[in-house]
Amino acid sequence: MAKISVIIPVYNVEKYLRQCLNSLVNQTFRDFEVLLIDDFSFDNSNKILREFALSDSRFKVIKNNKKGVSNARNLGLKKAQGKYTIFLDSDDYFEPDLLFELYYRAEKFDLDITVCSSRKVNDKGEIIETKNPNSPIKLDFCPLDKVFNPQSIDNIFSLLTPIPWNKLFLTQFLKNKKIKFPNLKIAEDVSFCYSAIISAKKIIVFDKELINYRFNRLGSSTNYRGKHTIDIIKSYFILKKFLRKNNLQKFQISALNTYLTHLRWEVVFCNKNNYQNFLKKLKKIKKREIFAQGLIQEKINVEYLNKLIGQKKVMFFGFSLFIQKILNQEKRVNIIGIIDKNKSLWNKTFFGYKIYPPQILQEQKIDEVFLTIWTNHPEVYPIVEKELKEYQVKLKNIFN
Questions:
Q1: One domain for residues 204 and 284
Q2: Out of 63-77, 174-188, 279-293, 320-334, which region has the weakest mean confidence (pLDDT)?
Q3: Of 223, 257, 278, at which residue does a domain stop?
Q4: How many Å apart are CA 317 and CA 92, to the nearest integer?
Q5: What whole-number percentage of the chain has pLDDT above 90?
Q6: Domain boundaries, position 266
Q7: Least enclosed by CB within 10 Å: which of 52, 61, 276, 327?
């Protein structure tokens, strides 16, 4: 019996699949099985899977007949033989010590969940973002390198990005708690991860980038998610039901606030028709007014930006999706640039706007700085406000 079960859904990823699987072959930790759930690929993915399965008995191919990623992961979990389980993506690749680093901590501290960090790579596999302070771990807030009980942290949902692929789960823990992926097009991992996190008794989070996450590649889910925004709402109600069933209702407000952050993110992917279709579906949802703070589509336009800043000399804090959607539409001379704490972005230029560290405010005379980060964490605004106080700059939230 393997010590770790690696579950990988596969669907038409021949371009990236060899790099993904070779990075598993080259793991320093050897005692694992790889369950490759082929979701009826029609490219050469299945051929590649068979090659690896023939050359390495740890790789096992399982047909899923186009039932979707949730069904694939659930099928893998059902067949998993390992003491621990990790759900990886077939277009990513991994550092050689990924499994060792996770397994070592899980065993040493008898953990339910072990969490590592990641970096972003582009379509070619080149690193484009590293040491992001907000993703996949909120580095300013999350306890690092020590065991903690998530139920002791009121705002636990905001500390960890709800992605399954940077987390090693105790297999029996998931099965005992009956935690599965719901059948949704998007946000299926949100309710899954949050259900697992809030159910765990012992977690460790460590900031070592062991996963190379291929961000926003052609054909990935981020290119069609605008059509399925309503699934964010469905995912919230699935988690709410889980919390109620497990007597964890005290975390419902935290869950709602976190889902509002996700909803703000998701509506950015909507074009006008997608957004209107989403609003029509939302009208059928009871108590839909609780999601009002997440409906910011009307603010993602140049008119809102012009009215907000007027003729003031301003900078934006946070290279958010709002910035990426708006600043490519119109160049404004009174927008001096973008401040971000992610070092890998410094000195890069986005549609003529340079990205700076906060220290740039020592050199620039700015009327206001607008915070563009969509987080539910109540301490983010005062922390940024405190950081900017020494520069005698006024901070405003762009969505207030």
A1: no
A2: 320-334
A3: 223
A4: 29
A5: 62
A6: 228-297
A7: 276
Partnered with residue 396 across adjacent β-strands are 370
Q: What is the DSSP string of 56-114?
A: -TTEEEEE--S--HHHHHHHHHHH--SSEEEE--TT-EE-TTHHHHHHHHHHHHT-SEE
Which DSSP category does 178 fall into?
T
The total of structural domains in the chain comes to: 3
Q: In this structure, what CATH number is given to the domain that contains residue 381?
A: 3.40.50.720
Convert the pLDDT of each residue in 190-205 to its tens digit: 999 999 999 999 999 9
Q: Are residues 245 and 345 in the same domain?
A: no
- Global pTM reads 0.89
Q: What is the pLDDT of residues 129-149, one digit of tens each?
A: 888 888 899 888 899 999 999
Same domain? For 322 and 282 the reply is no
**Amino acid type, 168:** L
365: burial class by Cβ within 10 Å (0-12, 13-18, 19+)? exposed
